[in-house]
Amino acid sequence: MPYIKETCVAGNTIEVSKYYSFRAHSRGEKRKKKERESSEAMKRINQRNAERDLRRLMNTNFKDGDFLVRLDFFKAEAPTGSEEMQNLISKALRKLRKEAKRQGTELKYIYVKEVGPRGSRHIHMMLTKCDIDTLRKCWPYGGIHVDPLYTGGQYGKIAAYFVKYAAKTEETEGKLIGKRWYGSRNLEKPRIKKKYISANRFREEPEEKKGYFLDKDSVRRGISELTGYEYLTYTLIKSG
């Protein structure tokens, strides 16, 4: 019986996942006792899936030199919650897109809203490199903090932080906020391929690829909480 090899090409990264499913698992492969599904278990799974999807989207559309931005609000004019924040960031982005188009720049962005229990209000954004003075002009509601991206095209840690900010906002407001994150319409999708491999077991070590190096922190082995079968995931990053 085969296993599934999923390959996702996202910018400078290649993510590889090997796993069995209910329909594809090796002959004689014993299914481990699966933890009883609980709301907490499903919450963990949903968070990991959200981080994976956002990481792949970021890796596909941004590169080192683009911006990681935090938009603040003046304390006296801080919005009451995420809905008011949404109105302000939408207004600012309309202005920024218009200015970027005039300057001949194609603008891409992904952002998330953070509402903290002690009154903190921030917009966290990944943004294609643009004129900082123009960005400041389009955000009259508070300060801005800009850091260039520098991790070689692997933005998994940023994606994890963005998902946590969204979770914090939902916890603070005591309700679902709709989308975890918002992105521009011109974002490209990562290229994902799934292949059924006719082999009794998959190789338990990451496979090397010329021109790429292994992100050691990305290697994950274990038992799936959903299927009860083994899995292996890892990421290769383009060299140079």
Secondary structure layout plus pairing:
Layout: E1 3-10, E2 13-19, H1 39-61, E3 67-71, H2 82-102, E4 109-115, E5 121-127, H3 132-138, E6 144-148, H4 156-173, E7 182-183, E8 191-197, E9 212-223, E10 230-238
Antiparallel strand pairs: 1-2, 1-8, 2-10, 3-5, 3-6, 4-5, 4-7, 9-10
Largest β sheet strand count, sense and barrel closure: 5 strands, antiparallel
Number of helices: 4
How would you state the average pLDDT, rounded?
A: 91
Share of residues in strands: 25-35%
- First-residue to last-residue Cα separation: 39 Å
Low-pLDDT segments:
none
Order of helices and strands: EEHEHEEHEHEEEE
Explain this structure.
The structure is a single chain. The chain is an alpha+beta fold and 240 residues long. The chain contains four helices and ten strands, in the order ββαβαββαβαββββ. The strands form two sheets. A five-stranded antiparallel β-sheet has the order 8-1-2-10-9. Strands 6-3-5-4-7 form a five-stranded antiparallel β-sheet.
